[in-house]
Amino acid sequence: MNRIQLKAFGKLNLGLDITGKRPDGYHELRMVMQTVKLYDTVMIEAVDGPVTGPDGIYLKVDKEGLPGDETNIVYRAIKLMKDKYGIRSNIYSELTKHIPMAAGMAGGSADAASALMCMNYLFKLGLSKEELCECGLKLGADVPFCIMRGTMLCEGIGEVMTPLRTPPYCHILIAKPGVGASTAAVYREYDALSDPYHPDIDALVKALGENDLDAVAKACGNTLEDVTAKHIPEIKTIEHIMYEGNALLSMMTGSGPAVFGLFKDREDARRVYKKLRRGGPEMGRVEVYLTEWQKQRVSGRLNGRK
Question: Would you please indicate which residues are annotated as catalytic (active-site) residues?
Fold first, then answer.
């Protein structure tokens, strides 16, 4: 085998709270993260001959404006593994995008996670998920979660993960306005707030443990939403449409601007899907997806903290 292809699953934040800021500038977080069945694909192939590109790496991308050079996190993930483990083979790789970009769904982090796993399998490195997470943390705070997947309470900068019960089955609608949000700018503006909203992450963890979808929906919250929505009013417009369509919950994920809604009834979700696909003067063009939870069975507490 000289090539391997893996799915890179996007994530939603069911809960996102900021508890402090570290001296190095990173924020201390408490989040409940959840992977969904909306994914990119990453293919990596070891080639005998030369490739067009530095570092013995060629990355083909399928989206206009998406770089295929060392500024792409997939490229950096491949180079990290080549350098760290002395891999001499040249690499040809392909990245196929489906997760909306600059949306708060960790698409880039998911791609990097899958690239690390591809390299591990392809070159038979025998690395555990915990070892892969250590590599992933060098690329971004969300990469370890995207390696572990499933439902996690993520603390620290996101690297300390405790597995949680997957939420009860429901229909998930994701809508991303036709604008992006700068994560760095959102966090800077958040830091200037005097009295930010803080969701009850403990209540969310409890609701998940009790397998109560209504309680989960009630406890979800994102401390960054008000900051992002102030500049992207389409977020609130989309949420309003989802609630009008009988969503149990509608809220922003990550630093935004993607919004997700939870629906008990599939037909309700499909009706709202069609309405959002049509767009309109108050929200412009919207990327819309219907999906489900993506599960991952793991146990214990990860990355060494007790």
Answer: 11, 142
Tell me the whole-structure pTM to 2 decimals. Answer: 0.94
Which CATH superfamily hosts domain 171-291?
GHMP kinase, C-terminal domain (3.30.70.890)
Distance CA 173, CA 200 (A): 23
CA dihedral for 208, 209, 214, 218, sign (positive or negative): negative
Closest CA to 296 of 152, 127, 168: 152
CB 180 within 8 A of CB 257: yes
Provide the 8-state DSSP code for 56: G
Q: Are 151 and 167 in contact (CB under 8 A)?
A: yes
- Comparing CA positions, the residue from 205, 188, 196 lying closest to residue 27 is 188
CATH of domain 3-163: 3.30.230.10
Q: Where in the chain is the domain with CATH 3.30.70.890?
A: 171-291
- Cα 298–Cα 157–Cα 149 angle in degrees, nearest 5: 25
**CATH 3.30.230.10 domain locations along the chain:** 3-163
Per-residue pLDDT of the chain (306 residues; tens, 9 = 90+): 699 999 999 999 999 999 999 998 899 999 999 999 999 999 999 998 888 878 999 999 999 889 999 999 999 999 999 999 999 999 999 999 999 999 999 999 999 999 999 999 999 999 999 999 999 999 999 999 999 999 999 999 999 999 999 999 999 999 999 988 899 999 999 999 999 999 999 999 999 999 999 999 999 999 999 999 999 999 999 999 999 999 999 999 999 999 999 999 999 999 999 999 998 777 778 999 999 999 875 433 445 332
Tokens linked to 11? 């994530």
